[in-house]
């Protein structure tokens, strides 16, 4: 988690910082094969040099970005979970639980779907 220390220190709201650290730690522990990096001032995870998932912090939510293909693939589940989304990110409100099962599905999808990808983005 050291790679994310500077990013986490800049989150002023302690509850938001703790929640963000919890999610980043979960991804790190669940997927030790992924590389944690900070690019464009945002924490993300890569696999063989290709983007898998990224995160950002906003006033009312933790934004999760599995790329547009990940959102498109899981739109129904995202909506069933009650999360709002755009074509680029999903909003996990600070005042609700993280749906780790959905997060896991999105990460697994990207790892599989991008297994032969040789670029950072799709």
From TrEMBL:
Start and end residues of each YdhG-like domain: 16-111
Pfam family, one: DUF1801
InterPro entries in alphabetical order: YdhG-like
Source taxon at top rank: Bacteria
Name under which the protein is recorded: Iron chaperone
